[in-house]
Amino acid sequence: MANHKGSEGTVKVGTSVIAELRSFSISEKADTIEDTTMGDAAKTFQVGLTEWEGSITCFWDETDATGQEAMTNGATVTLNLYPEGAVSGDHYATGSAIVTEVGVSSAHDGMVERTFSVKGAGALTWGNVV
Predict the structure, then answer these.
(1) Which residues are within 8 A (CB) of 128 and not within 5 positions of it... i.e. 6 or more apart?
(2) Model-level pTM?
(3) How far is CA 21 from the centre of its chain?
């Protein structure tokens, strides 16, 4: 059984690593279409359309021109999400996404953080780093 530390993860916008990454999440969903007919003893369903969305949190780095600064509200970007790292054989997800929300938070006793919400613009594909 393999497991991994969260600190191994990374996110790229295209080929550019997002600097100061703190965390990210991906959620995949599938619609269901009911196809129950008279006489069935239980409801039955078919798979409908799929979708995905995610969020990214990092410490704000305004000099990260091709990572954080490419994640502008409304932009369409190619994301590569590596939960276990980006070395040969590691599992990762890739897909086109629309940046739907950009946030900044600051507290007197903490670091300035930036958050991004994304919505998949097509399928999310999983593969292995070569």
Answers:
(1) 89, 90, 91, 92
(2) 0.91
(3) 13
- 20 in Cβ contact with 64 (< 8 Å): yes
Residue type, 75: A
- The domain total for the chain is 1
The answer on pLDDT for 84 being more than 90 is: yes
Instruction: Supply 46's token pair.
Output: 């078919």
> What 3-state DSSP class applies to 16?
strand
Domain for residue 36, yes or no? no
In a domain, 38, yes or no: no
Residue 1 pLDDT greater than 70, yes or no: no
Give me the CATH number covering residue 56. 2.30.110.20
Map residue 8 onto helix, strand or coil. Answer: helix
What single-letter amino acid sits at 20?
E
Task: Catalogue the E-assigned strands of 35-124.
Answer: 45-59, 76-82, 91-105, 113-120
Report the mean per-residue pLDDT for the chain. Answer: 96
Q: Are 61 and 37 in contact, with CB atoms under 8 Å apart?
A: no
